[in-house]
Design a protein that fits this description.
single chain; alpha+beta; two-stranded antiparallel sheet
Length: 162
């Protein structure tokens, strides 16, 4: 599997992708908007991978669903209270959007799949989904989106695994 760590001063490619998605959530057509000043500089290999991500995102069924959405927020700090104890949860590479079904969605984007990481992301998304659903009193979908391939997966089940 390709490493997410590439040149450009030792910056991680995934962190750069995260910064672009935070600055420009994929809800515009075209995405990113023509002439958008990206908040990162790519080296040669990173630029090739980024260009492939743009193609994969634009051809993704999830992007087609999102591109007319209104973003509620990115990097929303979330507070979880369980058994009288509060814990702050800050999503990473995520954005929240109202969807056409009268609910909202929370998406975590990742450049590529890492072996064994999906279930951890699903747990994180279930927590975000449950927190947002409880706070806003609407159904919320949790979606894991591997942007290098365009593949997306909706999470099911409770956050606690019950």
């Amino acid at each position: 599997m390709r490493s997410c760590t590439t040149g450009c001063g030792g910056k991680r490619f995934g962190e750069k992708v995260h910064r672009v998605f935070e600055a420009y959530p994929p809800v515009t057509d075209p995405w990113p908007a023509t002439g958008a000043a990206l908040p990162v500089l790519w080296d040669g290999e990173e630029e090739r991978r980024w260009n492939a991500i743009v193609v994969a995102v634009r051809s993704s069924p999830l992007y087609r669903e999102l591109r007319s959405s209104r973003v509620v927020g990115t990097e929303l700090p979330l507070l979880r209270v369980r058994s009288g104890a509060a814990a702050r949860r800050a999503p990473t590479s995520s954005f929240v959007f109202p969807d056409r079904r009268g609910s909202c969605g929370s998406s975590i984007t990742r450049p590529g799949a890492r072996p064994g990481a999906r279930e951890g992301y699903f747990l994180q998304l279930r927590e975000y989904r449950d927190i947002l659903s409880g706070a806003w009193r609407v159904p919320v979908r949790g979606i894991l989106w591997y942007v290098e391939t365009g593949a997306s997966f909706e999470v099911n089940g409770p956050a606690s695994g019950r």
